[in-house]
Amino acid sequence: MTPVLRAAEVFDLAFGLPLHILVNHAVVVLVPLGALAMVLMVFVPKLRTHFSYLSAGITLLGAVAATVAAQSGEALAERVGDPGVHEEWGDSLVPVAWALVAVSVIWVVLLRFTNRAVRVVAIIASAGVVGLSIASIVLVILAGHSGAEVTWANRVATDTSSVSPSPTPSATASAAALPAPSETAAGQNVLSLEMVAQRNTPEACWSVVDGSVYDLTAWIEQHPGGSGRIIGMCGRDATADFNTQHGGERGPASFLAEYRLGQLGQPAP
Predict the structure, then answer these.
(1) Phi and psi (nearest 5°) for 147?
(2) Per-residue pLDDT, 75
(3) Domain segments of the chain: what residues?
(4) pTM of the model
């Protein structure tokens, strides 16, 4: 087993749940808490004696949590697909969180010295502490918001016109409710681009990827990257779209396989 695969397994699941989901709670608490604590140390000198080392320690825990979140996020993406900008914000948070740890520790140590030159450096370091604290809090907010948006934006109805009074039909039910596909010259119903083109709506979404036909109706509202990307694949050959977004990724390919109806030219189900 390669080191990459072992790392993916380590950061994949915890207690049967994605580790990424669990560790995110630590990130949104520890990173802002450490950042705010260090800002207080800078602006409220009387707190430094008892809380400066503790505050720096919290920034360390936050940086560790952010690192684990980034690694576990990659493992989760292998299972459910690319989360887009959420992953970018999460990856950006890691170096900023560690930079805050480093500058915080340096500043706390420099406070022990009374030499004028060292004090000047301490003042510069305190400015770095404040700047990195603000940056880390902003990145936590951006990463958290983009993650929530990827997960929930397309599952929560924002327009009453988009809400159907009946439950969303399953892929099988959707296919059964459609008109019978046209027959070939040989008198058999076969999977074809023409048949796929008739299923081009969210209520009946078929697509072609690498010569195979997939019924993606049930996957539209579950896609972590948003329903719009799947709807854009409906009724056409979306091989280029899929390979551009997920080429070489095992997770998305395995999820796609669950919705396979068959190869073009084969009898329709």
Answers:
(1) -65, -45
(2) 84
(3) 3-152, 167-263
(4) 0.61
